[in-house]
Amino acid sequence: MAVLHITNNCNLHCSYCYSNKTNEEMPLSTAFRAVDFLSGLKDKYKSITVAFSGGEPLTAFDNLYKIVKYAWKRGIRNFIICTNGVKIDERVIEFFVAYNISPTVSLDGIAAAHRINRPAHDGKDTWKNVDHALDLFNKHLKAFDKRSPDYLRLRCTFTPETVRYLDRSIRYLADKPVSEVAMITLMPGMLPHKRWDTPLRDKSLTDTLDRQMGKILDFCIQRQACGHPVRLCFNECLTIRWNDFIDLCGQSRFPFCGAGVNKLGISASGSIFPCYLFSADPGRSDKLRMGDVFKGFKAAGETAGICRRFKENRFFSCLYWNFMETGAANSPALVYKALYQSMLKSLVTYFQR
After folding, report:
1. What are the chain's domains?
2. Which residue of 130, 143, 157, 260 lies most exposed, with the fewest beta carbons within 10 A?
């Protein structure tokens, strides 16, 4: 999968955003060259998936439409879009259905949680817009379900301020027409005023996290017993689900996210990075630049070290977020340790009962 960072522009002002917001957009010529580059990799990989990110990719809808049509002509048939959902309407959903585009929509749970961190630029509420967009998806559910098993994912980011809403938020999201809900921790270290390390030294917050995770586990088990399982994952890059987590507890490492090997991020200028997090702010990540869509990958020797560092990850965490928080890719950020411990406590409590 390759993520094209087609715009830095966005219509929201999220407090925890990691993207370097500007008015820069990926030129169509660069986007078409990226598609040509990826199309040339089809012999190496069984399938190519192109994802679109930003900023907010739907603010560049005209270019997005042209890029998807061009990629379709080049034989690429799988697409993903990461969107805040505010600009989704009937026209957009029909476009998603027609071109097999699976959306990942950011919605931080119930209104009280979402409103804390995700206002529009003018400060207005965005929760109702996104909730309405999900109602529109419900109208087109059959059309989506026929095209892809992962027709709609929800991305719920939680911060120290919203931990107390986690259980209620997951229950609310699980009742939406979704294939999966991803619980995402705040990007560590990227926003000094939103770091987890200081809040997590407060026992009341870790106790709240433990309680919320226990309630979520109970909810997942209840839904499983009723024949309506919840596909809930933690940290979308690694996609660890509850059942996977139980099986993996005895292992020395978790599944490799694929960054730099079978996942790439392509910046608005066409530079290639191991994943979308790097391409969202390429100035910070120049040392991990793997090449560009015009000249291709750097020599194998130059990129081997990059890929090796990613594949050697032995923690339930993201190497990039680790690096931003601790300065070392293989030194897990405190928030991941806390989440990992809460999951274990919840499982132990469940089995003791």
Report:
1. 2-352 (3.20.20.70)
2. 143
